[in-house]
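Objective 1.3, modelling of assemblies. Example input:
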Amino acid sequence: MTNLSVNIAGITFKNPVTTASGTFGYGEEFRDFFDPGKLGGIFVKAVTGSNREGNAYPRMAETASGMLNSVGLQNKGVDHFVREIYPRIKDFDTHIIVNVSGSTIEEYVRVAEQINELQNIPAIELNISCPNVKQGGMAFGTIPEMSEEVTRAVRNVYKKVLMVKLSPNVTSITEIAKAVTDGGADVLTLINTLLGMAIDAERQRPILSTITGGLSGPAIKPIALRMVWQVHKAVKIPVIGLGGIMNATDAIEFLLAGASAIQVGTANFIDPMASVNIVEGLKAYLQKNHIADVNDLIGALKTD
Amino acid sequence: MTNLSVNIAGITFKNPVTTASGTFGYGEEFRDFFDPGKLGGIFVKAVTGSNREGNAYPRMAETASGMLNSVGLQNKGVDHFVREIYPRIKDFDTHIIVNVSGSTIEEYVRVAEQINELQNIPAIELNISCPNVKQGGMAFGTIPEMSEEVTRAVRNVYKKVLMVKLSPNVTSITEIAKAVTDGGADVLTLINTLLGMAIDAERQRPILSTITGGLSGPAIKPIALRMVWQVHKAVKIPVIGLGGIMNATDAIEFLLAGASAIQVGTANFIDPMASVNIVEGLKAYLQKNHIADVNDLIGALKTD
Amino acid sequence: MEIKKTVQDLTVARNISLNNRHFLLDLIAPEPLPLMLPGQFVQVLVNDSPTTFLRRPFSIHQVDYPRKSIRLLVQIKGDGTRHLSSLREGEALNVLYPLGNSFSLPSVKNVLLIGGGCGVAPLLFLAQFLNQNRIRPTILVGFRTKEEVSEIEAYSAFGDVFITTDDGTEGEHGLVPDHSILQKERLPFEKIYCCGPDAMMKAVARLAALHKIDCEVSLENTMACGFGVCLCCVTPTDRGNERVCVEGPVFNIKRLDWI
Amino acid sequence: MEIKKTVQDLTVARNISLNNRHFLLDLIAPEPLPLMLPGQFVQVLVNDSPTTFLRRPFSIHQVDYPRKSIRLLVQIKGDGTRHLSSLREGEALNVLYPLGNSFSLPSVKNVLLIGGGCGVAPLLFLAQFLNQNRIRPTILVGFRTKEEVSEIEAYSAFGDVFITTDDGTEGEHGLVPDHSILQKERLPFEKIYCCGPDAMMKAVARLAALHKIDCEVSLENTMACGFGVCLCCVTPTDRGNERVCVEGPVFNIKRLDWI
Ligand SMILES: Cc1cc2nc3c(=O)[nH]c(=O)nc-3n(C[C@H](O)[C@H](O)[C@H](O)COP(=O)(O)OP(=O)(O)OC[C@H]3O[C@@H](n4cnc5c(N)ncnc54)[C@H](O)[C@@H]3O)c2cc1C
Ligand SMILES: Cc1cc2nc3c(=O)[nH]c(=O)nc-3n(C[C@H](O)[C@H](O)[C@H](O)COP(=O)(O)OP(=O)(O)OC[C@H]3O[C@@H](n4cnc5c(N)ncnc54)[C@H](O)[C@@H]3O)c2cc1C
Ligand SMILES: Cc1cc2nc3c(=O)[nH]c(=O)nc-3n(C[C@H](O)[C@H](O)[C@H](O)COP(=O)(O)O)c2cc1C
Ligand SMILES: Cc1cc2nc3c(=O)[nH]c(=O)nc-3n(C[C@H](O)[C@H](O)[C@H](O)COP(=O)(O)O)c2cc1C
Ligand code: FES
Ligand code: FES
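Predicted structure (tokens):
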């Protein structure tokens, strides 16, 4: 029997394949395609202190092997999440993790406190890396002191597993990773999107209403892999890796680089089945290579 | 008549299309395909203080819409350049600009001094952004103080046009741009490659001998465009833009974002004619849109 | 009633060129088609086009349940549609469908359908659907030029067809909203359904508002997912930013901030 | 003599499947072919393969100057070669050629060519070239299995052919360097040309060194440009890191640090 389950900061995931925040809704939209219970976990769309309308349309630009988005954390706020959405999804047969966002430390803390009360949410993912909001968001994630401060503030109120999602738009990802670890994070998630821009040469205008937006998709995979590798070597806490994962081979690369689990993001848009297909592909790889336990892949990159 | 010529820090380029260092050799290899005199300029391969063998093979990995390289500044050193190569290329009917690299400030200064003596080289491009050397290189380009210091040291000895090529692997590209401007740069070139990594999932090994390498190609274009746009707004000196330019439309996007000229890099590998085709495509675009002067495109992005 | 979405390999049964910018694609499903409504769309995965990363949305132009076949009307815009235009019979096309809401069934009888460019795509399906509900609509369709005027017979089977061309080579000269049937002081229509370029839809919406005619438009915002999870396709409505791929693509103009 | 490189659209004249992993591509040039030498290669632009960013290098397998045609022997490895395998007659393929140095013309008569897998590709052209220079080589070629043994008649026209298969289903059982003609105490060859997987070439190089036979190998380092400007394809030689695409792909083993 091949073991696919991984334990991350005390939480057992039935397999290391999860879905990235903002690319999987609240999981409900995928039930037409497959049973979300087949996944290790689901990271739901960012939740903020109150309702946000997000940025103006256009919010998307296609780029070479990737896309830019500037959604800007559109969501109906944490009260709505607790009241309306949580009851609908809490009994999914997989771990639901809430992506917590905000513009101020107080907002992060307030959302985390409310999510802390939800019994079937074993962890939150603190999004200190959203490039698409004017205040807060990525700003927190690019300055080590601020990253540590917001992590610590949330740590003080949040009693379950605290994951922090890092921004790749930094000179030294390991410096941020260490600061966040010092702040009390249990797990690091990386990477969020890279800040980019697209221009319509005919109209001589930016394509996004916000001019710049966040780059995701296979284009960023080499950068994501490098950062996961660097952070895995620099900190002792587990890392969840993502950025451009489209298939099982990509997922395996992240595990080898040191990720204890992976998230599937943009790939969900192109193939709603991408994440379950990755579970299957991972299983096939392990069997073909006679690896009994997926944990034997994690960080197993040979560099001699 | 459509004007294609641009003036950058006093140098008149017959058109804004040049080729990126490390992707065009010394220009000679392209003479089978077209007359290099058709280009605005040629940025030749990095020159260092003495002979370098570069990194071990494998030095290249293909990625989604891009590639990683870890050549590591292989070249025969500045003496060899002055003695052997300069005489062969000095009479090309285009501007030859030397990409100056090093591991120490002294090395940069020494190379710059020697190139300063070469009459037909109107400018150097200081490469403080190479991710593929252990010491120096990118390290200089990611810390504002060091960027400024190396620029100032070279400025003191180099009397012609000093261009400085920036690394995108930083939290704030505008901070570095300002530091380099303060250090005495006449022109900024951006971007160099992004630090990335590729893994062979079958062999469970990194593909590059150096594990990490520099990402180039269309994958990075959104990031490059964003940085050119940010820097163009932040500094008063001209910017030369590059990163994933494959065709005339890409080039026009960079001009709109604020680049006074562009460089064609990885595209040269796929189509040796890419750069001249871009000159033609740019001309066609101007004519179709009844724009008499290419300078009217520079920074003309409409953002209202 | 909730329609289950599916992602399936359909088989290209026919690729019919209408003119050098438009073609029809007939796609056969491997199993009975799900129920589809006029206004809904599909998301097509374009293979082998290095510059086409995301799926491409197209309205359902016609449905043939017995043959398990849907027809798309596609205009060549860029690399994605260019690749689709060279699909050959027998090739597989991965399609995610059916997506989005639909035009509402009108409670009135005097109905006008207005389409411009490939915005006519959903109107044929709608016209047929109206007929099945004993409504024979007036159909006003605009094209660039005579060579692009097509499928008029198909429309005529379901309603009275009026044509404009931008260059006046067939039908009335000018843009769709300028057609003479719309220039009367009182318009004989109780409901307008419109689909086409934004500028055209806005002009029609103004006209409808002026004449106090109920009006639905079908938006074509750019999409990443097409099934509600990315929030890239939103449009401002009276309930805030709503997803064009789920709450739309069809919106009553009363709900938009257009007028 | 300097041969001018060119980048041209060639036309696929034939795509001949040899077995489910190998095929031959005949490509016709629009104008007379440049002079090409055995060991040289071409860089092919693979269209419509979203995962194939760079060109793909292939050895020149055969040249037919009167027909302005070159033949490639391709093994399907990944997406790029898979796309090439489905090319149809009449399609255009953009090719950059001729690239690299070539095997040297030997000053001796007893010549052995050794090829494994698709490493046999340049050897047919070389064998023909040797014949034109009145040398009839011994040719030792290795395949995975009987089904993959191919073009033996073509080789036989130019020399005496010996075969190995990994599974023993044809010729001798085992790897190429283990063939009985190489197991004698004194080998009757004065020159060896070898092309194939690295491990095989290294084994042959050791054998050649042992028997003090002059030996040239053709390397297949991964390439970005193929014409000398990226410095990605280098191999360590007695003159430092040299470009396999310009100073190679053919190197005398004396110049490599293999033994
Ligand atoms: C719900 C919906 C239904 C649609 N139905 C049809 C249909 O039935 N038939 C049909 O031909 N087309 C339809 N479209 C438009 C169609 O999806 C686009 O034309 C197509 O995606 C273009 O792909 P491409 O790769 O060929 O062009 P690209 O290279 O992606 O784009 C070419 C040019 O068109 C512009 N463009 C692309 N998509 C859009 C868009 N959605 N809105 C505005 N500009 C755009 C781009 O900015 C670019 O300038 C529909 C779109 C939506 C959202
Ligand atoms: C000078 C030269 C001449 C060649 N001549 C021939 C020839 O005549 N016939 C032929 O079939 N092939 C030849 N090759 C090899 C051929 O170029 C590769 O097999 C091809 O590029 C693979 O492309 P792909 O997209 O199908 O596979 P990819 O998806 O790029 O690769 C599939 C797998 O093969 C590996 N791979 C790819 N290229 C190489 C390489 N160059 N060396 C080692 N491993 C590699 C990859 O790492 C990967 O694991 C030659 C290579 C060189 C450098
Ligand atoms: C449309 C879109 C919306 C996103 N929204 C969020 C979000 O709300 N919170 C968050 O932490 N990350 C968000 N992300 C980032 C993704 O979770 C992920 O980090 C990123 O897309 C890189 O992974 P990928 O390349 O697999 O998509 C979003 C990404 C996209 C494309
Ligand atoms: C193989 C290779 C070698 C390079 N060598 C150098 C170099 O010597 N000096 C330098 O400043 N940049 C070097 N670069 C970076 C390019 O000049 C350019 O900044 C980068 O590739 C981004 O542009 P592109 O996407 O158009 O290739 C090299 C890039 C590649 C791909
Ligand atoms: S396109 Fe993704 S939500 Fe509409
Ligand atoms: S492949 Fe570029 S130098 Fe050889």
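Chain D touches chain A at residues 50 (CB under 8 Å).
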